[in-house]
Amino acid sequence: MHKTYTSEQNDDCPSDERQRLADPSERIDFVCRQCGGCCTNTTPYVTPLDVWRLARFLDISTSNIIRKHLIIIETDLPGVANMGRVPLLALRMAGRGRSQLHSKQCVFLNRETHRCTVYAARPLSCRMFPAGLQHSTDGNGDSPEKNFHYVLVQPLPECNGYGAGCNTLQQYLAGDVHDDDLDCWRQYTDLMVRTFQGNDLASNEDFADSFLAAIFDLDGRDGADFNACFEQGRNLVTGWLA
Ligand code: SF4
Ligand code: SF4
Prior knowledge:
This protein has one domain (7-241). Helix content is 33%, strand content 14%. The protein contains eight helices and eight strands. 33% of the residues are buried. The structure holds iron/sulfur cluster (2 copies).
């Protein structure tokens, strides 16, 4: 058990079999109905920018967001070779036993209205669903500087969004996914791979806790700007690896 944060193993992270690469120009014909179905059946991973936004939306510190609302999930990174399980942060699920991960509901879901209570600050993974991002280790992502591929997750039976729109993946994402989200995801994932690929550092729980605190708990950094604080966190980790 991690000393600082609560952790779980996750064998249900979308594996290569449950997701496929997708081209941004691909027709997906999808509209989110905001029914809350995927808020019960997924594990919403968060980026450092997601945590920053949630903290400001809820007017609490990034430290409190992490301790109250997030959990460490030790899981595989689909598509990345020579990596053991890595520690990712995800929204905490509540309501059922620990062994029934997928029958729990997100802590931010209103159980009566089935609406998201942090909708304007919901994480990137929530805004992208049923699409996602996969790190590209071959340097041939959707563009070289991005270093990631788009993926589509297998349809959820409880999701009513399929066939309801008339759009491409790019059009669907355009409204809610922005360059700063993608930049943060790429920088975060690049650092994750550089830190944990080819070694067993992820099994060192003190190191894993320090890694997550360095790049997610940004309120203690100098400055009020996310990018400056995130860069300080990344530099801290890079210094440990030197
Ligand atoms: S289950 Fe589908 S339609 Fe419902 S909130 Fe999730 S993505 Fe939207
Ligand atoms: S943050 Fe909102 S959209 Fe995301 S899983 Fe939780 S309730 Fe659903």
